[in-house]
Design goal:
46% of the residues lie in helices and 15% in strands. With 223 residues, it is of the alpha/beta class.
Length: 223
């Protein structure tokens, strides 16, 4: 994809202050405002993607742009706070990371080490560019199929409905193998929740959140 002209000016400290402010209260988050503060040019990148080419490249996969609202991201990190307090070196792997909202938010808000794996290269490249502009050396993104690409070891795995339900079994198999090595936490939404609810090696954690986050977001820990 050709370079996008007119990149956004990014002020990492201003972006961090904005995230801290939004994290302190329950006021609605304007996603476009926070995207702009993080330097994400989602609309511009999406406008250059060709649906037919995506279908040709990833036809058996879920390739639509499905980044979750920052209200869900905020709720996720609020639920994760006890983990962050007792495990300050905690790392996160976002499977199907899109434009990297989870990793960028966590990197700025908590200094979290995060890695995102995204099927569509253009989205991974934009997330990586934003991480560099924000000075988040501990946050990185790569393009790859989460079903087959190597996974770096992590403590928390985000599985936010990035694959079709029929493709979830191999994902659960890989997560179970990671859980045998160490305790892990898994976050999920939507149809992924049903699969994780049936996994005997996971135990659900309480989630207190309002709105769409309360309806959709679920967290699990390995047992």
């Amino acid at each position: 994809m050709d370079a996008i002209e007119g990149g956004l000016d990014v002020n990492p400290e201003a972006a961090r202050r904005l995230i801290l402010a939004r994290d302190r209260d329950d006021a609605p988050i304007v996603d476009a405002e926070l995207d702009a503060a993080l330097g994400l040019r989602i609309a511009a990148v999406e406008a250059r993607l060709d649906t037919l080419r995506l279908l040709d490249r990833h036809g058996v996969q879920r390739f639509d742009q499905g980044d979750l609202a920052y209200a869900v991201v905020r709720a996720f990190y609020r639920v994760l706070k006890p983990e962050l307090r007792v495990r300050p070196g905690l790392s996160l792997l976002d499977l199907g990371s899109g434009y990297g909202r989870f990793g960028l938010y966590g990197g700025l808000r908590h200094g979290l080490a995060a890695y995102g794996l995204e099927l569509v290269p253009e989205r991974a490249e934009e997330a990586a560019r934003a991480a560099r502009a924000l000075g988040l050396a501990q946050v990185s993104f790569a393009a790859g199929d989460l079903l087959t690409a190597p996974w770096p070891a992590a403590d928390v795995y985000c599985m936010m409905n990035a694959v079709l339900p029929r493709l979830l079994p191999p994902v659960l198999t890989r997560l179970k193998a990671e859980a045998r090595r160490r305790r892990i936490v898994v976050a999920s939404v939507s149809t992924s929740n049903r699969a994780f609810a049936q996994a005997s090696w996971l135990r659900e954690l309480p989630v207190e959140a309002e709105g769409v986050a309360g309806r959709e977001l679920r967290l699990w820990e390995s047992v």
